[in-house]
């Protein structure tokens, strides 16, 4: 049976930052080894009702797209781009472009090629901004550190 | 055999923590799990700056967790299960405390966990019980919302949540005001800081006992009150100086003794901000000759072109524009020149009105009043 590693970002942090007093989005992480040399890392955003975050594929000058940054590592290599679940797509006149966004939840996944037989740490950060109908939270970075065993 | 391991989220980028002056005391959870004789259960709880993840082997349906805590904290328990879903039936949250606790949980229904020996958790359960009928009443609406695929219709359903949420908020508020010595009050209050009026937040905080003020959540609330206060009516507006959109030097001090200044925290990518620009433009046209200046402070430090384009497109180049001044660094952000510091800005748009003496006289959005209150205030100031 495939090994599954789950990392949880707990919602109930007592050490929430000042800048995150309003926290409509919670991230959780998981990694799944698909073969002896490959694995997929999952990132799930749980989004409060009424709020949304944006797709990775928003054009320049549009709303705050979600950006994944992986720290360079000798232990693994990225395979392709970070995939995302299908966003809701709407034409936004203000930006004169199609804008993809997510409500309730979004799952992103990144395939990696493992270069080491040992436990591999996949580190990096997610930058995202969230909006509801009345306000937006400026983009913030959340660091992740997911271990593939 | 399936192996399952849990990891906590790496440290968030953060502010320096408070010095730990509270002594760590031992806790001990004697657990029983129904429907599972072997395997592991996992406990997650905050410990200082980080999260502690602990595992315990189940032996004949019994498990034990031991550790140290400085105060009651929200913890979670989960079982080994191939799910990445936080709605996992084998995961639940509760308050744990220093001391001895007894826990009983059923495999497949962690949410029905019972915990003895944690007075804070007893309080949390009583609070949840009060809210349960409202949750039940709300369930059909939630269900309809989950099923609705059409975005516009879903948005309409969402609006029906509001009265339920308001009723639940009232219960929370009543709990907070009647429990000044509860860690739950401080915990709840932290999440309400973005929506509670400053005076009310101060009154609640001042009513707390010392141990609640000194708790992690209590300290967070205090910091937030200070920050919000510095950007609320009655405080001296923090002076900033920056090169503006045309490259000319601009300082808030330039307007002292001359004009009322509305500082508008916004961004090109912020749809609700952009939608508010026509209204700001109408206020500006009305009052600019009567002594109003607007300074737009945009969160567009990473994309100047988008900022300039939005200013043009929304025809707001008639007033002053500067960037917020947030710098990205390799490890996070440099906030040394960030104008939003000292104004308690957590969301956009937030508008702050400053009088000719440099004193804040109004805050709209971002924990302040609404736009109607802003219109009224300006009418009072400029039509007299």
Automatic annotation (TrEMBL), chain A:
Signal sequence segment: 1-19
Segments forming domain Thiol:disulfide interchange protein DsbD N-terminal: 32-145
InterPro entries from the UniProt entry: DsbDN (IPR028250), DsbDN_sf (IPR036929)
Example GO BP: cell redox homeostasis
Kinase among keywords: no
Pfam family, one: DsbD_N
Sample GO molecular function, one term: protein-disulfide reductase activity
Alphabetical UniProt keywords: Signal
Name by which UniProt lists this protein: Disulphide bond corrector protein DsbC
Organism, scientific name: Pedobacter nyackensis
Automatic annotation (TrEMBL), chain B:
Pfam families noted in UniProt: AhpC-TSA, DUF4369
Signal peptide: 1-19
GO molecular function, one term: oxidoreductase activity
Domain of life: Bacteria
Domain Thioredoxin residue range list: 231-383
PANTHER family from the UniProt entry: PROTEIN DIPZ, THIOL:DISULFIDE INTERCHANGE PROTEIN DSBE
Key words, A-Z: Isomerase, Redox-active center, Signal
PROSITE patterns tied to this protein: THIOREDOXIN_1, THIOREDOXIN_2
Protein name as annotated: Thiol-disulfide isomerase or thioredoxin
Record CDD domains: TlpA_like_family
């Amino acid at each position: 049976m495939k090994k599954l590693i789950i990392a949880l970002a707990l919602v109930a942090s007592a050490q929430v930052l000042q800048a995150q007093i309003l926290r409509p989005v919670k991230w959780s992480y998981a990694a799944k080894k698909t073969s002896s040399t490959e694995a997929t890392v999952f990132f799930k955003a749980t989004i409060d009702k009424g709020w949304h975050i944006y797709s990775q594929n928003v054009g320049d000058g549009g709303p705050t797209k979600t950006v994944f940054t992986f720290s360079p590592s000798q232990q693994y290599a990225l395979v392709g781009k970070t995939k995302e679940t299908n966003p809701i797509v709407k034409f936004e006149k203000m930006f004169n472009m199609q804008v993809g966004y997510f409500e309730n939840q979004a799952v992103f996944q990144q395939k990696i090629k493992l270069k080491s037989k040992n436990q591999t740490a996949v580190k990096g950060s997610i930058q995202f901004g969230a909006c509801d109908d009345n306000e937006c939270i400026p983009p913030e970075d959340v660091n992740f550190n997911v271990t593939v065993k | 055999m399936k192996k399952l391991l849990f990891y906590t989220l790496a440290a968030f980028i953060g502010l320096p923590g408070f010095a730990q002056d509270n002594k760590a005391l031992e806790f001990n959870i004697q657990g029983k799990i129904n429907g599972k004789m072997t395997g592991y259960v996992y406990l997650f709880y905050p410990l200082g700056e980080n999260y502690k993840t602990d595992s315990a082997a189940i032996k004949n349906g019994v498990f034990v967790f031991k550790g140290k805590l400085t105060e009651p904290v929200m913890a979670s328990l989960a079982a080994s299960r191939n799910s990445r879903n936080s709605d996992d039936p084998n995961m639940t949250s509760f308050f744990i405390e220093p001391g001895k606790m007894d826990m009983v949980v059923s495999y497949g229904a962690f949410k029905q966990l019972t915990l003895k020996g944690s007075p804070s958790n007893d309080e949390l359960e009583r609070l949840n019980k009060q809210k349960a009928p409202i949750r039940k009443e709300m369930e059909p609406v939630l269900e309809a919302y989950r099923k609705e695929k059409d975005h516009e219709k879903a948005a309409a359903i969402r609006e029906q949540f509001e009265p339920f949420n308001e009723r639940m908020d009232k219960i929370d508020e009543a709990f907070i005001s009647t429990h000044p010595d509860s860690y739950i009050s401080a915990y709840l209050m932290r999440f309400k800081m973005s929506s509670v009026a400053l005076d009310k937040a101060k009154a609640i905080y001042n009513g707390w006992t010392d141990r609640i003020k000194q708790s992690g959540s209590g300290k967070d609330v205090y910091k937030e009150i200070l920050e919000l206060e510095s950007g609320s009516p009655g405080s001296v507006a923090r002076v900033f100086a920056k090169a503006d959109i045309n490259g000319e030097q601009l300082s808030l001090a330039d307007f002292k003794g001359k004009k009322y200044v509305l500082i508008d925290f916004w961004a090109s990518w912020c749809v609700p901000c952009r939608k508010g620009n026509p209204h700001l433009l109408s206020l500006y046209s009305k009052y600019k000759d009567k002594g109003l200046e607007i300074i737009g402070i945009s969160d567009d430090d990473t994309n100047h072109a988008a900022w300039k384009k939005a200013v043009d497109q929304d025809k707001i180049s008639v007033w002053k524009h500067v960037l917020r001044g947030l710098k990205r660094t390799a490890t996070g952000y440099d906030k040394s020149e960030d104008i939003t510091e000292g104004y308690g800005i957590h969301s956009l748009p937030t508008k702050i009105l400053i009088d000719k003496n440099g004193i804040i006289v109004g805050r709209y959005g971002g924990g302040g009043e609404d736009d109607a209150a802003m219109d009224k205030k300006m009418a009072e100031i400029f039509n007299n």
